[in-house]
């Protein structure tokens, strides 16, 4: 699994550059051992339409794995007696209970949910 180092300080453009470098390394078969060591958290993206739930695997040495399934349209009450369409994704986590407390994972999931619900805040947070 390729590792994005210092993602908390890289900003969205830095993370995007790193991911493009990884894509090119994958195409060329040019990953270095240092590209694949030292991950703490894995993010698994399941963006194929119709994939609504995925259970991530926590690799040995990692603390947590998050899964983000494909967005799907759902009907929600609009507050005026009708309904409107809203995009929904399933966000899940698996974690090593020896390293991480469930309360902390719940706080992480809640924070990610809050950012996904507010795109302007998400863009600001990503720098």
Series of secondary-structure elements, N-terminal to C-terminal? HEEEEEHH
The quaternary structure here is single chain
Mean pLDDT: 89
Uncertain residue ranges:
none
* Fraction of residues in H or I helices: 25-40%
Total beta strands: 5
Biggest sheet, in brief?
A: 3 strands, mixed
Q: Number of DSSP helices?
A: 3
**From the helix content, strand content and strand pairing, which structural class follows?**
alpha+beta
Strand order of the largest sheet: 1-2-5
State the end-to-end CA separation: 25 Å
User: Into which percentage range does the β-strand content fall?
Assistant: 15-25%
Shape type = globular
Rg (C-alpha, Å):
17 Å
């Amino acid at each position: 699994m390729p590792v994005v180092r210092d993602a908390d300080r890289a900003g969205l453009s830095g993370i995007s550059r790193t991911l493009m470098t990884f894509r090119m390394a994958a195409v060329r078969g040019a990953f270095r051992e240092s590209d694949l060591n030292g991950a703490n958290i894995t993010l698994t993206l399941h963006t194929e339409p119709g994939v609504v739930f995925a259970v991530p695997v926590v690799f040995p040495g990692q603390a947590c794995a998050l899964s983000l399934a494909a967005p799907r349209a759902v009907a929600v009450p609009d507050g005026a007696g009708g309904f409107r369409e809203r995009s929904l994704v399933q966000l899940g986590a698996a974690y090593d209970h020896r390293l991480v407390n469930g309360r902390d994972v719940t706080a992480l999931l809640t924070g990610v949910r809050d950012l996904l619900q507010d795109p302007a805040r998400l863009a600001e947070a990503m720098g």
